[in-house]
């Protein structure tokens, strides 16, 4: 049976507050929030985690901007971005072991810091995932028309992606399809992801090997000999460039925490999600280093036609490099990015939907968000709302921004740093009374999340300040302020405003009646 630390259910008004509820009820097979418990194992969770990161989509969108920011130090910057992700993942694992709850950042930050910062932590996760959902859909649109043009050998079809009305309507079709699959629950999600993830991993390894072969036989565009110095992040010219590079590299690792948001639906919810998160981050790191090194060896960082420093290809590197590197098999890379975007678009719905479900469950959001689809045992209403908001955000950005991809990626990087940082520091504070009880507790519950959280906080503040410059990102600005700063500040302030509205409408959560602040020794 489900075990409760305290007796009252959500909305009871009992002042003791609900601490947390274990993931499954043995009689019903459902979690405390009505989700289908025990439907995902370690392999399934890892596959969904990789899918949410979307390596093919992420790399084609980030290789160019990262190379432009830090040059050949890109592998070193990827390493720097990997370290806080790993440290934060260790903290997430400890929090999940203690409190397996689909609210993750929202629930854990509330338990550690109280309702106000906890609510903002949940908001940060929701905003980040909504931003990336819009981004994923945009990339899927680009590669859909590119793939059709390659198959039909009609280059004009690829230009349809630049037509704003067609682009926005096609994005809507992708969003509806992904929302539908996610609405049908984790079993449908898992089955689809095995094929899509496996395909993109194989093609990316193929691309990297082919690029290295071109370098070896002298047919690379701008052959650049490998150097161990590429892994030295301190070779970056300035701290601002370093911070921009790290923000981008944090973006490319983002998404592994989806394995935690579905903890109420995994087998052995206290251990499986944390192990899947660590495994996901490790696999992705190796893949990224391989592709980054291979791309540098083939293209270099110059501004030539296929150089990684060429602004004309920076938003979609694989579209330019696929033909020269993979020859007649270039269509496979286009299909890999398309499938990566579509797969991640669908799996990314998992995070915001389950966070909104938890926030509705604990009355931090309207109760309607706590509703579960009777047939599919998924957070149906929250899933639909995530899709509608993400499409609306994309439509607005597609009209306002000169380069919607770059600006949303940089905005996303700030949001990731914010809510990951809050969650990492929540781990430190929640376990503070037992942090020095053993060497293991000191490292996993104190030192690792503290270092990871501080790094992310520094990157967040630095990026926020730098993004005020009207030349930051794509160069889009409003009134002399960079669009990235305006987006980041607006999204955070909108969260604060909505939080006060919720406090006035339903104060139960904010007075500790539905989710109680505490420590690990309570």
Automatic annotation (TrEMBL):
Cellular component, GO annotation: plasma membrane
* Membrane-traversing stretches: 35-57, 77-95, 116-148, 160-183, 195-216, 236-256, 276-298, 318-338, 378-397, 409-431, 443-465, 477-501
Which coarse location class applies to the principal site listed for this UniProt protein? Answer: membrane
InterPro entries noted in UniProt: AA/rel_permease1 (IPR002293), APC_superfamily (IPR050367)
Which branch of life, at top level?
Answer: Bacteria
What Gene Ontology molecular function terms does this protein carry? Answer: transmembrane transporter activity
Q: Where in the cell is it found?
A: Cell membrane
Q: How does it sit in the membrane?
A: Multi-pass membrane protein
State the species of origin.
Agreia pratensis
Q: State what protein this is by name.
A: Amino acid/polyamine/organocation transporter, APC superfamily
Keywords (A to Z) from UniProt = Cell membrane, Membrane, Transmembrane, Transmembrane helix
